[in-house]
Amino acid sequence: RLKIDGVLFGAVLVLTVLGLVFVYSASAFVAVERYRQASHYFFVRQLIYAATGLGLLVLFSLVDYRWFRSPQAVFLGLGSVLGTVTLAAVLGSRGRFLEAFGAQVQPSEFAKPATAIYLAWLAVEARERIQDVRWLVPRLLPVGLLCAVIGYRDLGNAAMVAVITAVVLFLAGLRWKHLMIMGALAAVAACLGIVSEPYRLKRVVDHLDPQHRLARAIGQEEWLRQYLARSPIQGDTGYQAHQAELAIGAGGLAGRGIMQGTQKLLFLPEAHTDCIYAIVGEELGLLGTLGVLAGFGVIFWRGSLWALRAPDRFGTYLSAALTVGIVVQALLNMTVVLNLGPTKGIPMPLLSYGGSCMWSTMVSLGMIMSVGARSESA
Fold first, then answer.
1. Is 333 exposed, middle or buried (0-12, 13-18, 19+ CB in 10 A)?
2. Residues 256-280: tens digit of each pLDDT
3. pLDDT, tens digit, for every residue of 77-98?
4. What is the C-alpha to C-alpha distance for residues 94 and 289, in angstroms, rounded to an integer?
5. Which of left, alpha, beta for 174 (phi over 0: left; psi -120 to 50: alpha)?
6. Fewest CB atoms within 10 A around its CB: which of 139, 149, 167, 256?
7. Domain ranges across the chain
8. Which string of b and e fits 183-218 if b means at least 16 CB within 10 Å?
9. HSE on the CB side for 102, CA within 13 Å?
10. Rounded distance, CA 146 to CA 157, Å?
11. Tens-digit pLDDT profile for residues 216-243
């Protein structure tokens, strides 16, 4: 008889319900004033995403995670994701989304669990050959190609795929020298991705050096200004982060109260999506933001526990990669909201409005729970 991790499921349920409350709070005014919809428009859609997501969580927790170790499942999953991501990059709305039944789906979100499955399988198959670069590199090419295609329009999810890759290779025992080389190559690729698009470079420059002191020092200020002028996003790209800071600062210790925040009244862009953490801070204060952080702390604790207690190495790699992927994404979202990093469209797992992120996160959590349910100490 399978035993479901009640602690992990409870944390997921609390965060999901909290997300529903704040999606409504953050989107009600915007739905009416900007989109000319009913105030509950985004809430109802998010409720559907959450309900179907919980269904996926239960389904994947019941499926034996070892089924995903079969080569057929591995390559079918990775190939399907790579194909749909490529299609979205070429044909999709804004290069990220595909239209399906009147809804937008972001295939790159599903690259994270697919990559975790592939790399966990690869690490188990590799055994001692993990140190053989000539054996390993060709087998990492599909992941590199996936990162390149995703990064063409979505550096955030490409970075998350890279994080998952690093976690599995580290746990599999890849030498530090090789990890450092791969990290350096990933950093170079990220820099090229940033410089290749004026709007990306503008976000970084506006955050790190808004006065262009470095460009002036090396005599490239005029080139930089001309290049940034080609960005479709003009004005201060730090405006969103500044408004998010104001929201969190206004919340104080205990917040203004649910539905009482003001930054969501068209002052803070993307209040119900990427910046929902700021609305939590404004309406529930420091206690609310720490509560969200604690929720992801529980996810990290339980996911790490099942990675350590997994009955096989595939379960260890899979649980660890998926756990770190979810938690790191949450932390990256927090850094942007707290103005500790440049603006980037990374949603908060389980809280932010959106179906693709909700579903991919629930699938990942379901597989973590599947590992836990089949551990000897479950």
1. buried
2. 999 999 999 999 988 999 999 999 9
3. 777 777 777 666 666 555 567 7
4. 31
5. beta
6. 139
7. 6-373
8. eeebeebbeebbeebbebbbbbbbbeeeeeeebeee
9. 1
10. 10
11. 888 888 888 898 888 877 676 678 888 9
Residues written for the chain: 378
- Amino acid at position 323, single letter: T
The token duo for 353 is 């409005």
